[in-house]
């Protein structure tokens, strides 16, 4: 057990270092290529100053997680599967970013193209879980304890979880350091769950994920010198779901990823309200923009959401400890 704990610490440090070292060279390179973020004109006016900030920095996170995982848990099929899913969703995000910032097609991938790729990836991952890893089709129930066997519905279920999580992380990535910081807390929680279920290689993967996000924050915290783009946010969503699915804790994403859930719900509520009544519930969605338009400083919003993520992290860990361990 001590050697696994040491490996997790090493994964955190190694991923952070691998993310930090190339960043000072990569950021100017992206700037020279004019791979800059486009800013919504209908958003907070302070964001207009961010126009042109290099994006697609999620490549740094993906590279760091992949390298640290290969070095410290490369013999584990589960860890490699988590890396693969992260790469696939990061690849979808990269394609979207490339179309938007390099080919200058403002909307990026068409919605049906993006969702179609996510559906295909999700179904294939679900099939891999059930028929290669023998994961079964049951999911653990938070609070109530026990498990629910979804049977034939499991593969479409995990596909929907993947799509929802990846796009929720993408929605959260709207302020400097917000998505990366929230993901650190989620990765720590799922690392705890992985360790408690004897999935030590996945705990190492989670350590690498947390370390890479921490390293990225050095350059992504306000004022950000680089954004992760869809490349990073989609990859983070895929990484979290990979661990949740292989530990049968998909429903714990609702607790541990509470900030992502709130951000997504605020967007859904806004759209439904406006379409039904032509009135908006929030000044702007997702929710972090609402607080900005209420006059909160960007750093205050980010730190408040980080605190909320910490609370959700502790809640998820406690719920699993008291109701999830009995069925392991």
Set out the fold topology.
Elements: H1 2-20, H2 23-32, H3 58-73, H4 77-102, H5 111-131, E1 138-140, E2 147-149, H6 154-172, H7 178-196, H8 200-220, H9 229-246, H10 253-256, H11 258-277, H12 287-293, H13 298-324
Antiparallel strand pairs: 1-2
Structure description:
- This protein has one domain.
- Helix content is 69%, strand content 2%.
- It contains 13 helices and 2 strands.
- A two-stranded antiparallel sheet has the order 1-2.
- α1 (2-20) packs antiparallel against α3, α6 (154-172) runs antiparallel to α9 (229-246) and α7 (178-196) runs antiparallel to α8 (200-220).
- The longest helix has 27 residues, at 298-324.
- The radius of gyration is 19 Å and the shape is globular.
Give descriptors for this structure.
328 residues, mainly alpha, two-stranded antiparallel sheet
């Amino acid at each position: 057990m001590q050697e696994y704990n040491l490996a997790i610490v090493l994964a955190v440090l190694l991923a952070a270092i691998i993310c930090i070292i190339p960043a000072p060279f990569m950021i100017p390179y992206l700037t020279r290529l004019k791979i800059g973020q486009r800013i919504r004109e209908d958003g907070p006016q302070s964001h207009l100053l961010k126009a042109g900030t290099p994006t697609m920095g999620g490549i740094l996170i993906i590279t760091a997680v992949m390298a640290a995982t290969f070095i410290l848990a490369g013999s584990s099929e589960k860890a490699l599967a988590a890396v693969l899913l992260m790469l696939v969703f990061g690849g979808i995000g990269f394609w979207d970013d490339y179309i938007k910032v390099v080919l200058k097609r403002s909307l990026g991938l068409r919605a049906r193209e993006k969702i179609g790729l996510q559906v295909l990836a999700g179904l294939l991952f679900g099939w891999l879980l059930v028929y290669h890893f023998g994961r079964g089709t049951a999911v653990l129930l938070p609070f109530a304890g026990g498990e629910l066997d979804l049977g034939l519905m499991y593969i479409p279920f995990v596909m929907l979880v993947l799509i929802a999580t990846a796009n929720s992380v993408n929605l959260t990535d709207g302020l400097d350091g917000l998505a990366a910081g929230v993901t650190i807390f989620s990765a720590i929680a799922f690392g705890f769950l992985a360790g408690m279920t004897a999935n030590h290689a996945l705990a190492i993967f989670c350590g690498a994920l947390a370390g890479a996000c921490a390293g990225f924050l050095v350059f992504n915290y306000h004022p950000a010198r680089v954004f992760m783009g869809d490349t990073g946010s989609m990859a983070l969503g895929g990484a979290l779901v990979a661990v949740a699915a292989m530990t049968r804790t998909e429903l714990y994403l609702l607790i541990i990823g509470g900030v992502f859930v709130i951000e997504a719900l605020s967007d859904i509520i806004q759209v439904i309200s406006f379409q039904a009544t032509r009135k908006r519930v929030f000044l702007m969605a997702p929710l972090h923009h609402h607080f900005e338009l209420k006059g909160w400083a960007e750093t205050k919003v980010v730190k408040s959401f980080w605190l909320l993520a910490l609370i959700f992290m502790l809640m998820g860990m406690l719920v699993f400890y008291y109701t999830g361990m009995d069925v392991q």
